[in-house]
Amino acid sequence: MSTATALRPLSADLVAGYRSRGFCRVEGLLTPAECARYRAESLRLAAEDGRLTGQAGTIYRKALVQRVNIWRDSPVMAELTLHPQLCAWASQLAGVPLRLWHDHALIKEPMNGAATEFHQDQPYWPHTHSPEPISAWIALQDVPPERGCMSFIPGSQRLTQLGATDLTDAGGLFALRPELAWAERVTLPLRAGDLTFHHGRTAHMANPNATDQHRVAHTVIFMPRSTRFSGSGHVVTHEMGFQPGDVLQGPLFPEV
Ligand code: SIN
Ligand code: NI
């Protein structure tokens, strides 16, 4: 059976929920064997370059061990980042043609004692002309709340004027918009192989990992093909030669 014939569209209700609330949960992207393979590869690559420290180092390192653009270093992880079903779901939810912006291994070490605090993602990115960015967050083992699953503030994707906030400051986002502190928060535990999608402006956080296993998530961030470079600094575009106003395109930002 070809991959194309195996693709499963999302229900109209799920898409409508994503468009109004700014996030959704989708079950069954990966089998247990696929999760085990991608999880082992993420941990191998994070350990290889000394990122798994047993929580030494800064509070940022404590909250989250990250490896950006892991797909460029690992053909195994590239399979996941460019997974046809994943890309089809992201495109259906966004409702516009997409490219890959970047991916990340996102690891919380056992008993890390630090949340990833509420923030929007888009203010970190050097983007203009990008109304519908969408991120997938894939659980590579079961992620109950106590292992660091994500929580979202419904409707917060409509807030276009907030700036970047500190991922380790529990009050950072709420200092910008105090009423958000009293808004509904939706926590979405995930079984291995399930995922959440969130709009690039949906406010979200992840609990600390209070278990004895690494929490390994894989996030894939897609941007509309209309997205242009704003000129501000970012690790992904560093020294790539883009000028402000250029469309972010090329083989490192493949269309999906
Ligand atoms: C996390 O995985 O802890 C946070 C992910 C995110 O901010 O998108
Ligand atoms: Ni985020």
Describe this structure in words.
It is globular, with a radius of gyration of 17 Å. It has helices at residues 3-6, 12-21, 32-48, 59-63, 75-81, 84-94, 172-176, and strands at 23-26, 65-68, 98-108, 116-119, 127-128, 134-139, 150-152, 186-188, 195-199, 204-206, 215-224, 228-229. Strands 1-9-6-11-3-2 form a six-stranded antiparallel sheet. A four-stranded antiparallel sheet has the order 4-10-7-8. The protein has a two-stranded antiparallel sheet with strand order 5-12. The chain is built from seven helices and twelve strands. 38% of the residues are buried. The model has no long low-confidence stretch (mean pLDDT 94). The two termini are 21 Å apart. The longest helix is centred in the first third of the chain and has 17 residues, at 32-48. With 256 residues, the protein is α+β, with helices and mostly antiparallel strands. It has one domain: Jelly Rolls (Sandwich), CATH 2.60.120.620. The structure holds succinic acid and nickel (II) ion (NI).
CATH class term:
Mainly Beta
| Overall geometric form | globular
Q: What would CATH call the homologous superfamily?
A: q2cbj1_9rhob like domain
The tally of beta strands, per DSSP, is: 12
What is the architecture at the second tier of CATH? Sandwich
Number of helices: 7
Strand arrangement in the largest pleated sheet: 1-9-6-11-3-2
